[in-house]
Amino acid sequence: MKKLLSMVWVCIMSLTALYANASSIVTGEDGYRLWLKYDPIQNQGILPEYKKWLVNWHVEGNSKTSQIIRDELDYAFNGLLQASNPTVLNSANLVVATAKTASQFLPEVNQQLSQLGDEGYVIRQMRYNNKPVVLVAANTDIGALYGTFALLRLVQTESDLSHINVATAPKTKVRVLNHWDNPDRHVERGFAGESIWDWHKLPDYKYQKYTDYARANASIGINGTVLNNVNADPIMLTPAYLEKVKALADLFRPYGLKVYLSIKFNSPATLGGLKNSDPLNPDVQVWWDKKVAEIYQLIPDFGGFLVKANSEGQPGPGDYGRTHAQGANMLADALKPHGGIVMWRAFVYANEKNEERSKQAYSEFKPLDGKFRENVMVQVKNGPIDFQPREPISPLFGATKQTPMMMEFQITMEYLGFSTHFVYLGPMYEEVLKTDTYAKGKGSTVGKVVAGEVYDYPITGMAGVSNIGSDRNWTGHIILQSNWYVFGRMAWDYNISAEQVAEEWTRMTLSNKPAVVKKVTEMMMLSHEATVNYMTPLGLHHIMGTGHHYGPGPWVDDLGRADWNPVYYHRAAKDGIGFDRSPSGVNAVEQYFSPLKEQLADPKTTPEKYLLWFHHLPWDYKVESSGRTLWNEIVHRYYLGVEQVAQINQSWDSLKGQIDPLQFKQVQMANTIHLKEAIWWRNACVLYFQTFSNQPIPEGLEKPKGTLEAYKAMQFPFAPGQGE
Ligand code: GCW
Question: 424: CA distance to ligand 1 center in Å?
Answer without folding.
Answer: 21
